[in-house]
Amino acid sequence: MSVRKPIAARSGVAPGRRRLLLAGCGAVALLASGCGFRLRGPQALDFATVHINTPPETELGAQLRRLIATSGTTTVTEDAEQAEARLQILGNARGREILSLTGAGKVREYQLTQTLRFQLLDKAGKPLIPPTSLSARREYTFDDSQVLGKEQEEALLYRDMQADLVQQMMRRLAAAHRAG
Fold this sequence. Notes:
Elements: H1 7-11, H2 15-34, E1 49-52, H3 59-70, E2 75-76, E3 85-101, E4 107-122, E5 127-141, H4 147-175
């Protein structure tokens, strides 16, 4: 005849230790939730309407309109006179520089750059954010036997840089406050 042991005895952990372990896990969960950690989500803007001088058909214009719409507090208007704020894209430049060459004189690495210049004006035309320049850089190796793949990689890197720059711009827009 076999005597069955209680579950706690079978698991190798004494009941007192189990309670201590559960209490420790609970304390860690409470500390993690109370530290203020929060995922970055859409940030509220200080103005109800904004006009963007970039057409919605462009990749940059569509990206800006989508992010402003997710803020939940601001809508994009196509009439600059009716907007509380005007976001002016002053420049969106891309560049490519050779970083290194092979011994045969062929390109081995490129550095891609993208610079986004913008300003934010209030309804009266006073700057809420003066002309500001944001830039991003990426490097990639080039192989002329894989030209098509490297062109796609370059396009992907430019899209990634633009997304980073737009996110930086949105954080600056969220920090801007109207006078008054």
